[in-house]
Amino acid sequence: MTGAPVPDRAELARIVRETVSDVLGTEPEDIHETTDLKGDFDIDSLELMDIGARLETALRVGIPVSDLTGAATVGQAIDLLADRLERPE
């Protein structure tokens, strides 16, 4: 994210919720910090990859698949993304 401001956590959460809801065909209000995409929405690997690709584009940062698969909840994914944005590799 060279030169671009890093979104604060609230803005990042909004971006993640909107991205996830777009891919899953739900409303952003249906996605919460405690949402478990696998358990609550039975997300598959293709949907997860789509979410990752969209977030990479929106945030202009590389996101390893392990970051997305390693997060049990949406809140954990937001925390991982916030950390990556603050310390890009």
Automatic annotation (TrEMBL):
The keyword Phosphoprotein applies. The keyword Phosphoprotein applies. Residues 7-85 form the Carrier domain. Gene3D superfamilies: ACP-like. Keywords: Phosphopantetheine, Phosphoprotein. SUPFAM superfamilies: ACP-like. This is Acyl carrier protein. The lineage of its organism: Bacteria, Bacillati, Actinomycetota, Actinomycetes, Kitasatosporales.
